[in-house]
Fold:
Amino acid sequence: MASTIGELVVGVDRLGAHAERTRMSQPVRNGSDGSESGSAPSARLLPGGPVAQSILDDVAARAAALTRGGVTPSLATVLVGDDDASAGYIRIKQRQAAELGFASPHEHLPASATQADLHAVITAFNDDPAVHGLLVQHPVPKHLDYDRALQVMDPDKDVDGMHPLNIGRLALELPGPLPCTPAGIEALLAYYDIPVAGREVVILGRGATLGRPLSILLAQKRPTANAAVTVVHTGVSDWPRYTRRADVLVAAAGVPGIIQPEHVKPGAVVIGGGVRYEGRRLLPDVDESCAQVAGAITPRVGGVGPTTVAMLFRNAITAAERATASG
Structure:
């Protein structure tokens, strides 16, 4: 069985080739302070769009190969309730699925659905051999238990990579779907040729979807990881003492504006992974003024988000290939 972690390693050369072309188009800093001559210091931007596109191009080619063999890759989605933002996220995934050649069966349950109703839909998709990947849109209505529903899901169809079995696989470096945002961050660092091996990576945030799995991923022994990883959180009163020493700082706290310029080592790479929303307005962890201190930084919009979606489809195509090979 091919490992999804192994795919990150295999993709390094391809990502590096794209990155070289990107670097050629980036401004070259030549001032004594690392800035362009005649301009204020400003970090190199690390947009996620080009990274995501390189991943999705690979997914599309693999989907086409399966289709030529008579198998249509399929990503099923489940939405409970009528939250506008959640419905929008589902539409984005369905459009992307169509562009990549995926089928995208969907089940929309009313907000009044019971836990048993949700489990029944998940079980039906589990049992359908034509469905290769499955996603339950989070959050669900408050009377439902998302974690219980996740445990009902077939872990091999879990495209978010968050089933407890898949987190265990990640910890033991066993084949399985990877958590999408952490895997997307590793891919982004590889694409832009940001050295990680042997360097100090500090993650501010210990959440189950980002901080904790990313710490495991970047500590593993391979060229795009192998870092000295420290996880710190807002429960630590002097957390800036840790972030200021980071060569690579990942903000994953979900606290808008928590990372300010004084929390960043000059020249460090800053990845904004944590966000909150105020209505439709995105509020990132990293204040935009950090670009005046950092050496490289993800943009406020279009940084980690696109790579997260791309990794979801990479998990889905890998699941389809695995199911086809075993069937």
